[in-house]
Amino acid sequence: MKTGTKAASSPEPEPEPEPESGPGSGLLPVADPRRARRAAFGLIKADGRAFTVVVLLNALAAAAGLVGPWLLGRIVDTVKRGGTVADVDRLAVTMLVCSLAQLLLSRYARYAGHRFGERTSARIREQFVDRVLALPASAAERGGTGDLTARGTNDIATVGTTLRDAGPEVSMAMVQVLFVLGAAFALDPILGGIGVVALLGIWFAARWYLRRAHPAYLAEGAADSALAEVLVTTAAGARTVEALGLQERRVAACVAAIERVRSAQHRTLFLRSVLFPAIDVSQVLPVVAVLMAGSALLEQKAVSLGTVVAMAMYFRQLSTPMDTVLLWMEQLQGSGASFARIEGVGLVARERRTDADAPTPADDRIEVRDVRYAYDGGGEDVLHGVDFSVRPGERIAVVGPSGAGKTTLGRLLAGVDEPRTGAVTVGGVPVATLAPDRLRRQIVLVTQEHHVFAGTVRDNLLLAAPAATDDELRQALAVVGAEWAAGLPDGLDTQVGADGHRIDGAQAQQLALARVVLADPHTLILDEATALLDPTTARHTERALAAVLEGRTVIAIAHRLHTAHDADRVAVMADGRLTELGTHDELVAHGGAYARLWSSWHGGS
Fold first, then answer.
1. Is the model's pLDDT at 3 over the cut of 70?
2. Sheet strand arrangement including 383-390
3. Is 397 helix (H, G, I), strand (E, B) or coil?
4. Coil, helix or strand for 60?
5. Distance between CA atoms of 235 and 248, rounded to whole angstroms?
């Protein structure tokens, strides 16, 4: 994902630092090598029978490939001692049969390996989706869309390619290398030992590369994520960029991100430019060493000419599987870093509990007790000792100036974030520990942000209630004032989203609110959820929702104070503290902060 070149003769650049991950870094973490290895073994175990078949076929193919050089040596010795043509023909036919067997076994080994790789790749994709869906919303927000997108596309594609192509090729090559070296030692231990010593150059070159490759590829992946994040946020905010004249600043940010990508790829390119020439030279040395030592031993009649020829063929035969291993080494390092990034998502994904093993609230009473909260778990608190309770069926409006902590409190009430200290519970159970299915039935947070999924209007609504009938879908749309839906070209079957019928922001928000009506939660948290609607439509929608949710708890984070006027109680926030709590009339009579807000808003109205 980086672009850049560097001559092999250039001085070695400084190693790229491994990307930070953890609290406050804003990046999703990366799994350490031990966890990544454990996860890889788990994937192999999940399809152990297929993996065993792949290994067995590779072993048989490698064994068949060993017969050829040995028989060639026997042919040389047979000719030297005056053997008959029939003897040579018999050995040649055996060589042919073994070569054909190796070809067929290798073909089926690759086929079995590709099937194993595809199934394992599918498991990784499914596991990644499950983990992303189990991510706390706060972790997904801190990680950024770009990082998640890069891990879910580039990294998974890299791992998939390795499993499909590199995995079978490398496993077959490794088995061949082991079998060839074993055959060489069995044929003549002295020449075999000389050839192995001559191979040490490859070991040193590979060791130099491997010590530097993993952090370099991790840095490359982090740079990819950063570039994706810049591009995604720039595209998403294109209208704002244009309206505020921020084009040059965004271009500069993109150029800087591209430069980091180029630099990271430059580093990995340098590593390859050192590794490959060293390997090419090192592969010739064993054959030369065996021939030189073999000629000396042949003069002393310590070995036969056929043995020297067979030994030279064995070490020459090593070049093909070793080339495969070393050429795929870059892919394996890149995929290893990608797999560590994929597994890193699991470090922050909440365990996806089910109703069967999750605690069950005793009732629907919400308790907020001495809650303090700081973003990323550190730094200065933005909520300071907030303490109150919400009775089942009560309507509470949370008001206050911008930055007072209203939205943060709403996220804690909805279980999106967890308090640093204190507790937010429903029926005595911490909200953040509820199983996802129960949490959706218990509490739903609706914000100004909304999303229209690609598909039909029906598809968008059924996300909240898969078993709902068309009449129930239309009723939910009517409840939130979405009369426009009845006039769509194909009704509920109208395609919406980027490639379908374009709906404006207010309509998209009404669609999101209709999903809430269908979800039918006990507690609804509205974080200025009707902000995109005009005042008349917003008031109509809020009253309609209130009528539908009769007997349910509603917590409205409001900037229009008529919402507070209609609420059972009003909670006033200022500087992260709950400063006032009471009915509208009580707070107006008290003459405090809320009375001043009401007087200012009501006078303006």
1. no
2. 383-390, 366-373, 421-426, 429-430
3. strand
4. helix
5. 14
Pick the closest to residue 14 from 264, 341, 340 (CA basis): 264
**Residue 28 belongs to some domain of the structure:** no
Which letter does DSSP use for residue 279 in this model?
Answer: H
Query: How far is it, in rounded angstroms, from Cα 226 to Cα 25?
Result: 13
Which of 222, 232, 424 is CA-nearest to residue 340? 222
Contact 71, 102 (CB under 8 A): no
Distances (CA, A) of 521 to 16, 233, 366: 49, 32, 14
Q: Does 384 share its domain with 469?
A: yes
395: β partners: 554
In which domain, by residue range, is 157 found? 33-348
Does residue 183 lie in a domain region? Answer: yes
The total domain count for the chain is: 2
User: Judging by beta carbons within 10 Å of its beta carbon (0-12, 13-18, 19+), is residue 502 exposed, middle or buried?
Assistant: exposed
Contact 394, 367 (CB under 8 A): no
Is 148 found in the same domain as 215? yes
Angle at 448 between CA 137 and CA 512, to 5 degrees: 85
- Tell me which residue has tokens 């539908």: 548
Alpha helices, H only, 134-199: 137-143, 145-150, 156-161, 167-187, 189-198
CA distances for 111 relative to 42, 101, 172, 419, angstroms: 22, 15, 12, 52
- Give the torsion sign (CA, 382, 387, 392, 393): negative
Task: State how far the alpha carbon of 244 is from the alpha carbons of 91, 121, 230, 238, 249, in Å.
Answer: 82, 44, 17, 10, 11
**Would you state the torsion angle of the CA atoms of residues 169, 206, 268, 16, taken in this order, to the nearest 10 degrees?**
130
Instruction: Give pLDDT tens digits for 414-464.
Output: 888 888 889 999 888 888 877 766 777 788 887 766 778 778 889 889 888
CB 569 within 8 A of CB 391: no
pLDDT, tens digit, for every residue of 213-246? Answer: 878 888 888 888 888 888 888 887 888 888 888 8
Same domain, 322 and 467: no
Write the CATH number for 84. 1.20.1560.10
Tens digit of pLDDT for each residue in 11-53? 344 333 333 344 334 467 888 888 888 888 888 888 888 888 8
Residues 242 and 264: their CA atoms lie apart, in Å, by 31
For residues 424-455, one letter each, b for 16 or more C-beta atoms within 10 angstroms of the residue's C-beta and e for the rest, the string is bbbbebebbebbbebbebbbbbbbeebebeee
- Judge if 323 and 416 occupy the same domain: no
Q: Which amino acid is at 261?
A: V
C-alpha closest to that of 583 among 394, 406, 429: 394
Q: Is residue 260 part of a domain?
A: yes
**13 located within any domain:** no
Domain end, chosen from 313, 348, 383, is at 348
Residues 378 and 450 grouped into a single domain: yes
Q: CA-CA distance, 61 to 244, in Å (whole number)?
A: 66
**Are 454 and 570 contained in the same domain?**
yes
- The domain that holds 432 is classified in CATH as 3.40.50.300
For residues 337 and 386, membership in a common domain is answered with: no
Q: Which among 289, 320, 348 is the end of a domain?
A: 348
Same-domain status, 338 and 373: no
Length of the chain: 605
Name the residue type at position 435: A
